[in-house]
Write a structure and sequence with these properties.
It contains 13 helices and 21 strands. The protein has helices at about 20-30, 40-55, 70-80, 90-100, 115-125, 135-145, 170-175, 185-195, 215-235, 265-280, 295, 330-335, 425-430, and strands spanning about 5-10, 15, 20, 35, 60-65, 85, 105-110, 130, 150-160, 180, 200-205, 245, 285-290, 300-315, 315-320, 340-345, 355-360, 365-375, 380-385, 405-410, 415-420. The longest helix has 21 residues, at about 215-235. Bound molecules: pyridoxal-5'-phosphate (PLP). Pyridoxal-5'-phosphate (PLP) binds near residues 67 and 247.
């Protein structure tokens, strides 16, 4: 299927993931149910790893942005594939640690890391802390002095690139809560201060230009802007910073119209920009870090729902109500994200009509997809929503006191639960009388 080679349709006409019949998985584990294809996830990791070898001679790190989907099993799988891991909170750091991911391979992000989070990072020996602002730089320097550790840091820079419009609007450059502005001189000043901080090892710079980006050009442009800054830093301070983190943001297919570039092409073209720059300026080739999140787990995920009511409003639309909601799939409600839906038991048939898939929350905006083609469905049927591996479970809430669904990993060795379904008891666990 266009989303993933690990999705298919079997002889019964049922949707399969990793060769397993989704109709049977729904019977076995109940709905709503998050499914993850282990092979798709591993394949995505391997594509990035191979590209890092091929285009940077292995002098780089692929760090999975765990905010896309953070649980112990996924952290462990990604680490097994040799990737590093981005974390942005004590919770993500705790999960990575519980999964046994070595501290050296972790990168800590965030525009407002608390002293507790920084202390945790120092304690666990997080390899790189991406410093967002001067308050944090000074706090970390003080904390490092007290612990006798000398953490590696990167500085987050806003390169001023709007990846979606290709415009270079001045306000767009400065108006972000993340990082140091480049063109005001803020970034250069921060670099000088970081280089002078005895307790910190400034290893390089970081940028992240956005998410779900299909064009290669903005990534190449960002790389060049960052390298220009690194070259100015060398001229101003005599130090050629050894590391460049170019962030994540690679797009994935949600609907057939989406046409993402193979990840290896992003890697190839960006690496060409980097090599050309370093050649022209005689700048030492940096150790390059990339941070894909969505493109590691997104296409590996499918969510299964059971249809409750089908409400046809003549001349208006047909609502297909499912047993999930914006609580487990918030992206359509948040920003009208598009998805592909299939009737899991009739996935081989052509869509019968266009419907609106509604969730069960007490909220008119609780829709999972509007005007989407779907095969015929009746109450009791299963609907599969594709490309739900990223930013679904990780953004899920208990709105309307709905327990979060379970997650099942489907791999070569069969299927197994990796996140258990929340219970009603879980929902009141922290309530006090
Ligand atoms: C969100 C984020 C990523 C991952 O973005 P994707 O679009 O999921 O690839 C990487 N780095 C940083 C700093 C981020 O905030």
């Amino acid at each position: 299927m266009f989303v993933s080679p690990h999705l298919d349709i079997n002889s019964l006409g049922h949707l399969t993931i990793g060769g397993e019949d989704t109709v049977e998985l729904a019977e076995r584990y109940g709905t709503p149910l998050y499914l993850m294809s282990e092979e798709e996830l591993r394949d995505n990791c391997r594509q990035y790893r191979r590209s890092m070898e091929e285009f940077y001679g292995g002098r780089g790190l692929v760090a999975y942005a765990s905010k896309a989907l953070c649980c112990k099993a996924v952290c462990r799988l990604v680490a097994e594939e040799g990737l590093g891991l981005d974390v942005v909170s004590a919770g993500e750091l705790y999960t990575a640690r519980a999964a046994g991911v070595p501290g050296k391979r972790l990168i800590l992000h965030g525009n407002n890391k608390t002293p507790d989070e920084l202390a945790m990072a120092l304690d666990y020996g997080v390899g790189r802390i991406v410093v967002d602002n001067l308050t944090e730089l000074r706090l970390l320097d003080t904390m490092a002095a007290a612990t006798g550790k000398r953490p590696g840091i990167l500085l987050r820079v806003k390169p001023g690139i709007d990846a979606h419009t290709h415009s270079f609007i001045r306000t767009g450059q400065i108006d972000s809560k993340f990082g140091f502005a480049l063109e005001t001189g803020e970034a250069m000043a921060a670099v000088k201060e970081a280089l002078a901080a005895k307790e910190l090892e400034l290893r390089g710079l970081h940028c992240h230009i956005g998410s779900q980006i299909f064009d290669i050009q903005p990534f190449c442009h960002a790389a060049r802007v960052m390298l220009e800054l690194m070259d100015s830093i060398r001229r101003a301070t005599g130090t050629a910073l050894p590391e460049l983190d170019l962030g994540g943001g690679f797009g994935i297919p949600y609907i057939p119209d989406n046409d993402p570039v193979p990840y290896s092409r992003y890697m190839e073209e960006v690496s060409r920009t980097v090599k050309e720059f370093c050649g022209e300026r005689d700048f030492p080739m940096p150790f390059v870090i990339i941070e894909p999140g969505r493109s590691i787990v997104g296409t590996a995920g499918v969510t299964l729902y059971r249809v409750g009511g089908v409400k046809e409003i003549p001349g208006v639309r047909t609502y297909v109500s499912v047993d999930g909601s914006m609580a487990d799939a918030p992206r359509h409600a948040l920003y009208q994200a598009d998805y592909t839906f299939l009737a899991a038991a009739r996935a081989g048939q052509p869509p019968a009509r266009v419907v609106t898939v509604a969730g069960k929350c007490c909220e008119s905006g609780d829709l999972l997809g509007e005007n989407v083609p779907l095969q015929p469905v009746a109450p009791g049927d299963l609907v599969a929503m594709l490309s739900t591996g990223a930013y679904h479970y990780s953004m899920a809430s208990n709105y309307n006191r709905i327990p979060r669904p379970a997650m099942v990993l489907v791999g070569e060795k069969g299927h197994r639960l990796i996140i258990r379904r929340e219970t009603l008891e879980d929902l009141v666990r922290n309530d006090l009388d």
